[in-house]
Amino acid sequence: MEELEVILLESDIGIAPATRIIQGIRDAWKSNEIEDTSGVYNFLKENLKQNLKEGDNSLKMAPVPPTVIMVAGVNGAGKTTSIAKLANLFIKQGKKVMVAAGDTFRAAAAEQMDIWSKRIGADIVKHQTGADPAAVTYDALEASLSRGMDVLIVDTAGRLHTHENLMNELSKIKRVISKKIENAPHEVLMVLDATTGQNAISQVKLFKRAVDITGIFLAKLDGTAKGGVILGMRDEIDIPVKFVGIGENVEDIQEFDAEKFVDALFD
Ligand SMILES: Nc1nc2c(ncn2[C@@H]2O[C@H](COP(=O)(O)OP(=O)(O)OP(=O)(O)O)[C@@H](O)[C@H]2O)c(=O)[nH]1
Ligand SMILES: [Mg+2]
Questions:
Q1: N or C: which end of the chain has fewer CB within 10 A?
Q2: 76 assigned ligand-binding residue
Q3: Ligand 1 atom 14: the closest Cα is on which residue?
Q4: Which residues constitute the domain of residue 40?
């Protein structure tokens, strides 16, 4: 049991969930639900799968278009790439998609979004570097409505969750969206780098406080990272993982699958 606890902690699952799981195994052992080591293994796997399956993993779409999806996260998490992947998915479904280049902070950011949008065939609204991201968002909302877009995805600049001014800026962007379109944004996705350890929990908590995150996009799950941190996420924050990123190309996106995720973790 001690070895198992170490393994769980090393996989970034977090102390509270690891303790809960270990206690669950002890209880199951006492009540003869588990009889041998393979029983422990299966119990653990099922426990993690059930935990990750709770809640709704699908994207909430607006009853009347456009569906507005706001995307946030720390620097370099994979936001812009993940937006391109999502936009491409929608376009493949025959939807009209616009992206808002809401990262006006980094000089090359709008250009990066522009390149992606051309490649996948999405409309784009962008301003100069240094412009107010809320203003870009406002223009994109107007353009989405007038051009009859099905989906608008709003990119935002990477920011440190501990930086209060920048988190307030994020809240402002969300308020602009809510004012313009009732019940929007329909999703606020936080892109999380799968290689992030326990720090991810405090990241998500603070982003949730600022913009009420509705789902996680777990990027960079193709590397050595196992993304164990999301196992603890449900216990502590209760936000579902909706998508995973598994590479740098637009096709490298999958809907989150708890079964597959846990099996891969154990392999
Ligand atoms: N291997 C891998 N790389 C990814 C994935 N998603 C994004 N990346 C890479 O991660 C790097 C950062 O991606 P961006 O999309 O620019 O990240 P960002 O969060 O928009 O970054 P900032 O806007 O600077 O905060 C790029 O080199 C991407 O190609 C993924 O799922 N797998
Ligand atoms: Mg970006």
A1: C
A2: yes
A3: 78
A4: 2-53
Same domain membership, residue 212 and residue 96: yes
Which residues, in sequence order, are bridge partners of residue 189? 71, 215
Summary count for the chain: helices (H), strands (E): 10, 8
Q: Using the mean position of ligand 2's atoms as its centre, give its distance from the Cα of residue 165 in Å.
A: 19
Q: Whose CA is nearest to atom 10 of ligand 1?
A: 78
Question: Do 83 and 211 belong together in one domain?
Answer: yes
Neighbours of 98 (CB within 10 A): 23
Sheet containing 97-100, strands listed edge to edge, beginning at the edge strand earlier in sequence = 123-125, 97-100, 151-154, 67-72, 187-193, 215-219, 241-245, 253-255
Are the C-beta atoms of 102 and 137 separated by less than 8 Å?
yes
Of all helices (H) and strands (E), which one includes residue 7? helix 2-10
**pLDDT digit string, tens, across residues 188-223:** 999 999 988 888 989 999 999 999 999 999 999 998
Q: Is the pTM of this model over 0.85?
A: yes
Instruction: Tell me if 42 is assigned to some domain.
Output: yes
